[in-house]
């Protein structure tokens, strides 16, 4: 079975079926324990954020879901079927798309052409039709091009469509990379630090555009910008040293003294006005007041504590 799945119908499964389910996932690199009995889920039309210090295992989890890393044990289920020997190039056919920490655009292609490249898993015309320029291939090519232009417009960067990546501002590059992921019409979108390098205004705008997609897709996002995570995610999973230490709504996570002290830091304040009383939670206050920003500085991990750390 080429995709390494326990089924033959995952591509036809309805969106309303089960989403991503990870059960007791463990990943070892030699003697280094990167993930230890991790269990979490992403339900249809849900945005879930992964937070935690560097080396906590977040990117390792993404790599396991993407097929770059083989788990030592545990199960990854997608729409009710176990993913076993899948490869990264299988993701498009499975209905999964991923962005990278770096934008990863092809430098010799325009922004529009980069987006079109993401549609490859959706193409139906055979190679002979493409080589011969037959009507099936030509019609599909026009449809994909129209869809790419539409996505760039929806993301507010249509005017950059014919520019090469090196000529694009970094925030525009991020949106082009997002459009390239969305054109494959995924049911699950994996976002790896989508806000890195963006200004506060760019972050606000992109957060709104990601939430606008929630009627069509589920999102699992790794991000260090806590103001984005609090404003965007329905649920947050807290990682440390390869383990899940808490999962809950943004309000539940920020209200947890243990999580706040160990993973988000004690110095919590907003950039505009301080809280009116010490009892108020500044991060919650930032969620309620438009334009406010919560800055939460993580404490550095103490060497030797907890499980062995791995990059991710």
Give structural notes.
- This protein starts with 19 loop residues before the first strand and ends in a 16-residue tail after the last strand.
- It has helices at 58-66, 91-94, 111-117, 127-132, 135-154, 170-182, 200-211, 226-232, 250-255, 257-264, 282-288, and strands at 20-29, 32-42, 47-51, 73-78, 81-82, 96-98, 188-192, 218-222, 235-240, 243-248, 268-270, 294-296.
- A six-stranded mixed sheet has the order 6-7-8-3-9-10, sandwiched between helices. Strands 2-1-4-5 form a four-stranded antiparallel sheet, covered by helices on one side.
- It is globular, with a radius of gyration of 21 Å.
- Mean pLDDT is 77; it is low at 1-16, 126-132 and 267-312.
- It is α/β, with parallel strands linked by helices and 312 residues long.
- It contains eleven helices and twelve strands.
- It folds into two domains: 1-95 and 187-269 and 299-312, 3-Layer(aba) Sandwich (Rossmann fold), CATH 3.40.50; 105-185, no CATH class.
CATH superfamily of the largest domain: P-loop containing nucleotide triphosphate hydrolases
The total count of strands amounts to 12
| Helix content class | 25-40%
Q: Note the overall shape.
A: globular
Could you give the order of strands across the largest sheet? 6-7-8-3-9-10
Reported by name, the CATH topology of the largest domain is: Rossmann fold
Number of domains: 2
Cα end-to-end separation: 30 Å
Query: Which structural class should the secondary elements be placed in?
Result: alpha/beta
CATH class category label of the largest domain: Alpha Beta
As a whole number of angstroms, the C-alpha radius of gyration is 21 Å
Major beta-sheet overview: 6 strands, mixed
Order of helices and strands: EEEHEEHEHHHHEHEHEEHHEHE
Q: Number of helical runs?
A: 11
- Unreliable spans: 1-16, 126-132, 267-312
């Amino acid at each position: 079975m080429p995709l390494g799945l326990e089924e033959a119908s995952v591509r036809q499964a309805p969106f309303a079926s089960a989403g991503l389910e990870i059960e007791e996932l463990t990943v070892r690199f030699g003697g280094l324990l990167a993930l230890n009995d991790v269990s979490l889920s992403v339900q249809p039309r849900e945005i879930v954020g992964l937070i935690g210090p560097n080396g906590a295992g977040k990117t390792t989890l993404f790599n396991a879901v993407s097929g770059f890393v083989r788990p030592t044990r545990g199960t990854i289920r997608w729409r009710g079927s176990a993913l076993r020997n899948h490869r990264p190039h299988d993701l498009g056919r499975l209905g999964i798309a991923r962005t990278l920490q770096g934008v990863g655009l092809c430098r010799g292609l325009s922004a529009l052409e980069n987006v079109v490249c993401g549609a490859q898993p959706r193409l139906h015309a055979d190679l002979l039709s493409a080589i011969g320029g037959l009507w099936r291939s030509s019609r599909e090519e026009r449809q994909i091009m129209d869809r790419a232009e539409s996505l760039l417009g929806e993301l507010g960067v249509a005017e950059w469509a014919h520019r090469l990546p090196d000529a694009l501002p970094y925030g525009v590059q991020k949106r082009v990379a997002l459009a390239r992921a969305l054109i494959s019409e995924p049911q699950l979108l994996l976002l790896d630090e989508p806000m890195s390098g963006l200004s506060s205004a760019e972050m606000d705008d992109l957060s709104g555009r990601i939430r606008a997609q929630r009627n069509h897709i589920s999102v699992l996002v790794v991000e260090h910008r806590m103001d984005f995570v609090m404003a965007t995610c329905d649920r947050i999973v807290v990682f440390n040293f390869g383990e899940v230490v808490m999962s809950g709504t943004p309000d539940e996570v920020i209200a947890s003294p243990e999580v706040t002290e160990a993973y988000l830091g004690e110095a919590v304040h907003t950039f505009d006005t301080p809280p009116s009383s010490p009892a108020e939670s500044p991060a919650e206050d930032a969620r309620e007041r438009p334009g406010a920003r919560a800055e939460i500085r993580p404490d550095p991990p103490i060497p030797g504590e907890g499980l062995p750390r791995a990059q991710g």
